[in-house]
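This section describes the prediction task in plain terms. A model, or a person checking by hand, is given the sequence of a single protein chain and must write out its three-dimensional structure as a string of C-alpha cells. No templates, partner chains or ligands are provided. The sample shown here is typical of the held-out split.
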Amino acid sequence: MITLPQEVRSQYPEVFNFWCEYPESWQMKNPFGPETFEYTPIIYKGKFTDCEHAVNRYTRTLYLLHEELEDTPHRLNKNYKKWFHKNLSNAILFGVMWDITNDRPVCFGQVGKRTGYATELLKINERFYTFKDYRVGMFKSPDDHFSTIYQWHVARQTANIVFLTRENTPLFFKKSAKLFYFFSEHNDWAITENVVYSKVLKTKCCCYYWFNRYKYDKYSAANMMSELLNTDEPFKIN
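The expected answer:
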C-alpha cells in the first residue's frame, strides 16, 4: 500500500486527498512486495511542505542521486545537478516516492511551470528519475504509476493544459493499461499523443498532453503545444 503523511493530507486537502474518491481497487499496489512506500510531497508551490520528513528526505535524495550519478554516469548528469539546486523554487509540486522499509528514495519528479504560461500550462513528470534498484522496465513503474497520476491531479487544479514528454516511447499510455484506463475515465479532459522533433528539447520525443474540453478546443490546444515545444511539423489533431 502506498500512503501519504497525515499532516500533508490535512493541510492541503484539495490536492492531496483525491484518491479517497476512488474504490479500494484503485489503491496503488507495491510491485516490490511487502515493503511499504510513502509518497512524500516535499515542495508545494515553491515552499517546503510541513511533512515531518520533507527536509530530511530531500537531503537524502539529493545525496543518493549524486552518489548514483557518479557511479553510473547519466547523459543528463549535469542537468539533474543544476536543476536540483536551482529549479525547485519554481515547482508547483516536487515529490519523492519513499521506501520506508529500506529508508531510501524510489523515484522523484515535479510539476513545473513554463515561462510565459503561468499555471495555465504545466508539465508533469519533469526530471522524473527512478533509482536503479527500482527500475522495472520501459512500460512499467515501480510505484504502479502513482506519481504520474498524483502529479496530474495536482496540476489540473490550476492548469487547463497538462503535458509530459518521453523520449522515443510512443504508445506509453496504451501499453500501460492502468494509465490508459485511468485517463479515459476523465471525460472532461482529452488526451493526445504526438511524436515530434522539439527544437526546445533538441530531440525527438513523444508528447502527451491533456486539455480541459471546457476551456480549449482541440485546435487551439494543439497549436499551443506546437508553439511551446517549437516543432517543425504541426501537432496532429485527434
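For orientation: The chain is about 30% helix and 30% strand.
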